[in-house]
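Entry:
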Amino acid sequence: MARRRLKALADGADRVSTRLLPWVVAVMVFLSALALAALLAVHGSVATWTGDMERKLTVQVTTGDSAARERQVSAAAAYLRALPGVEAVHILADREILDLLEPWLGAGNVDGDLPVPALIDVTITQGATVHPSAVAARLKTVAPDASLDDHEQWLGRVRDLAMMIEGIAIAVLTLVTLATVAIVVFGTHAGLAAHRATIETLHIIGAHDKMIAREFQDRFLFLGLKGGLIGLALAAASVFIARRIISELGVGVLGPMTISMAELAALFILPLFAALVTMLTARFTVLAALRRMV
């Protein structure tokens, strides 16, 4: 009998105080999913970018004398090919260099009359150790107008940018979780206020605090899961659209930012997490409030 009465307690008078909770949780899960998707995309893409660039060296030969440039390029390439740990050496043709400049200067603004340095692309063998400073010093002896770029400055900036974006995403997830807890606490107190007289009567007839809290936590678990699924559906649609747009437009120096299907699957834990946070917050709020009521 007490059990049936408690079910009415959870589903009746407090419905007004909790009717918007699923939509609030949906918004929270939506924001969390977008933040988590951004976190996964940046983490995976930066790992790809830095992994590729860490194995790359670029040699630039700048001299106005075309004959001297050709000699220095040949000498530099021969030295690099003989260097231990070097997997491949590729001398870029003028057309390849102009194609690299086109995204920066705009289509149609690059022609063969544009003075460009000679470039040599060097790929380091996976796991090999090459000391750029020593290579650069030796390179100067065979090609005085050559300079070596190990991309370390660029990689450092990319890593710093990734850390900043990841930090923002983690902050968003934390703030959204705290906001959800605060909203659930408010809704739980409203439900307790609506049932205060009934709860006092149940206490008189011997109902335990945990029994009353269980009814609230079960209802809030359902509301949290419902809102979480709605938020996830909206976020999944947004991420899918953004993923297609980024895949189509993400060409150029850095390449596209993508999210694997395995990483997308991780987003499906968010409704469960939201439901768990909602349930536990409701339970502990009810228990704390009931202790004060006794």
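The chain is about 70% helix and 10% strand.
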